[in-house]
């Protein structure tokens, strides 16, 4: 058996989208019997939520979909680009941040927008997984969950 491949999901504050993606990815990995092949974490480009639990709406959507999850927010760092095999941004702003940090240096990580793997986004061209933080209800979080599920499944279909 080889070394586990690793993924890092990155959003703005690491309390909504990226922890949702991490939890979904780990659930899909478990469902497919691939836990010995993959390792996942998530982080944010900003540090203001470091140490905080995910947004209560993220946790509600995960629970409603049968996913147990525990997480403390952390900030993305330059070292993550050499620690992880794949780094996924949730939107264009996250990708710009990651790519600026990466610069022209050769790093281990392959960097992608997570939504670029979503089969629905491939036909619509809408690859951003929008930040639901300021939504007044849970629908944005449910949409985020569905996008993460489709994207993670498709990524694993291509990389296993």
UniProtKB/TrEMBL annotation:
The entry's keywords: Cytoplasm, Hydrolase, Protein phosphatase
SMART domains xref list: LMWPc (SM00226)
Protein task: Acts on tyrosine phosphorylated proteins, low-MW aryl phosphates and natural and synthetic acyl phosphates.
Full protein name: Low molecular weight phosphotyrosine protein phosphatase
Domain annotation Phosphotyrosine protein phosphatase I: ranges: 5-158
CDD domains according to UniProt: LMWPTP
Main location group: cytoplasm
Family statement drawn from the similarity comment of this UniProt entry: Belongs to the low molecular weight phosphotyrosine protein phosphatase family.
A Pfam cross-reference name: LMWPc
Record: active site: 11, 17, 131
Gene3D superfamilies reported for this sequence: 3.40.50.2300
GO cellular-component term (any): cytoplasm
Location of this chain's protein in the cell: Cytoplasm
Enzyme Commission number, as recorded: 3.1.3.2, 3.1.3.48
Catalytic activity reported: O-phospho-L-tyrosyl-[protein] + H2O = L-tyrosyl-[protein] + phosphate; a phosphate monoester + H2O = an alcohol + phosphate
Organism of derivation: Macrosiphum euphorbiae (potato aphid)
Domain of life: Eukaryota
Record-level Gene Ontology MF annotations: acid phosphatase activity; non-membrane spanning protein tyrosine phosphatase activity
Name of the top EC class for this enzyme: hydrolase
């Amino acid at each position: 058996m080889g070394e586990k491949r690793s993924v890092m999901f990155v959003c703005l504050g690491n309390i909504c989208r990226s922890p949702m993606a991490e939890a979904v990815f780990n659930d899909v990995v478990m469902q497919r019997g691939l836990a010995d092949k993959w390792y996942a974490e998530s982080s944010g480009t900003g540090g203001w939520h470091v140490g905080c639990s995910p947004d209560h709406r993220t946790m509600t959507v995960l629970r409603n979909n049968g996913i147990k999850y525990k997480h403390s927010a952390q900030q993305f760092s330059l070292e993550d680009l050499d620690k992880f095999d794949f780094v996924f941004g949730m939107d264009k702003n996250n990708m710009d941040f990651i790519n600026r940090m990466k610069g022209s240096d050769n790093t281990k990580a392959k960097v992608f927008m997570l939504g670029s793997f979503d089969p629905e986004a491939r036909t619509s061209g809408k690859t951003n997984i929008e930040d639901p933080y300021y939504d007044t209800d849970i629908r944005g979080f449910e949409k985020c969950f569905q996008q993460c599920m489709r994207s993670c499944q498709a990524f694993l279909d291509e990389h296993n």
